[in-house]
Amino acid sequence: MKYLNALFTIDGVGNQKISLLLNHFETAQQAWEAGTSELIAAGISENLARIIVEKRTSIDPDERWRVLEKENIELITIQDENYPELLRQIPSPPYLLYAKGNLDCLKLPMISIVGSRKFTTYGQQMTTKFSQQLSQAGFCIVSGLALGIDGIAHCGALDSNGKTIAVMGNSLDDINIYPRNNFALAKEIIAKGGLLLSEFPVPTHANVGTFPMRNRIVAGLSYGTLVTEAAQESGSLITASFAVEFNREVFAVPGNISSLQSEGTNNLIKKGAKMTTSLSDILEEIKPQTQPQQFPSAVSIELNAEEEKIMHVLSPEPTHIDIIRKLTKLETSAISGILVMLEIKGAIKNIGGQNYIKL
Description:
With about 350 residues, this protein is an alpha/beta fold. The protein has helices at about 1-10, 15-25, 30-35, 35-40, 45-55, 60-70, 85-90, 120-135, 150-160, 185-190, 210-220, 235-245, 265-270, 280-285, 305-315, 320-330, 330-345, and strands at about 75, 95-100, 110-115, 140-145, 165, 195-200, 225-230, 250, 275, 320, 350, 355-359. The chain contains 17 helices and twelve strands. The strands form two sheets. The protein has a nine-stranded mixed beta sheet with strand order 1-2-6-5-4-3-7-8-9, sandwiched between helices. A three-stranded antiparallel beta sheet has the order 10-12-11. α1 packs across α6 (about 60-70), α8 crosses α9 (about 150-160) and α11 (about 210-220) packs across α12. Residues about 290-300 have low confidence and may be disordered.
């Protein structure tokens, strides 16, 4: 493994070249120690063979391995039993994955939730709603740790005591976690039994070229991709296009036709993505593809008559407590206590200013 890692740190040695080398040599160590002519015989170009021979003089495989151990980063090859089966099925799957956290997440059925970095209150509500409900239905939520919808999706899973995987466009050492504003979230994902995943060796900085590669893995891991809110030029649409390419389901939450932040999702629906307004829209497409025992029963919330009355008048749109009182005809003092209990049960959320939304 340490020689595989060392080979991946050389520019130009990617999944295809590693496959050539390991088809020719018995071990990665033999490939690492091979001369120029031997590398050429394995199918490597003369130019790259010379680069490998030159670059490896300044790379110490043992030192690079110690860095991974210090950062608690594990390696998974495509032959490993922990390697996700759905990802193995995509064209040109990553030969090597770097992982940090709970590897058991890779055994769960996965749904990816993605969207724009810029988001509206509606986008935040829908992302939280679906992330929580899918987590409660037994799915591991996959996203890209980006600012905006991605981060909200991870948080929704964590808030529901669910599992989540953040696929990174950078290496997993602390100094390269990106965006830095979500560094604390990355740590929380690990602390709460989630997983960070990447195909990039240490050290790799995030850049324009690494994000589409990350999006390909996000789509490849998942039975389906849900886009909750996206503008027309959102990078999350790249993830949706990969899902289509991999013959996976694409779901989209419809939005206000006057909102620029919903142009991307509304156009996805026009192009054939499944319009998604409830959890059942997703489950009816995904469950037949999975083993039934993988899905624990969704958490049910028991409500009394007064709680039911309040839930009936709430929606994903903010509703002020005065409106709740008028519609339910309950006393204000009673309503306050009921709202507190509903929030504790995870049925609603106080978004400030005595405004409440249904989750």
